[in-house]
Amino acid sequence: MTKSDLIDMLATNLNAPKAQVRRMVDALVDTVTATLVRGEKVQVSGLGTFEVRKRAAREGRNPQTGAKITIGARNAVGFKAAKPLKEAVK
């Protein structure tokens, strides 16, 4: 499902204009992004938790040459599904 598909489904389910739903989805994405940038978690009941996870530097290999390389430390977004979502997907 793409963002556009999501907007179409929400607009149909809510009987709301697509433009309004698009603004709401964009606001949700912007809010989640801003919250994660501040280092805070975002918990959505029934869906799950988004959080920033620190990834340590590690050694890897160049797939073309096999030479050792260092992969730098970075932040990554993690998601842990809530129990109702896990059960629904089972």
From TrEMBL:
It comes from the Bacteria. Coiled coil: none annotated. This is DNA-binding protein. InterPro entries: Hist_DNA-bd, IHF-like_DNA-bd_dom_sf. GO terms for molecular function: DNA binding; structural constituent of chromatin. Belongs to the bacterial histone-like protein family. One of its GO terms (cellular component) is cytosol. The keyword DNA-binding applies. GO terms for biological process: chromosome condensation. The keyword Plastid does not apply. Pfam families: Bac_DNA_binding (PF00216). Keywords: DNA condensation, DNA-binding.
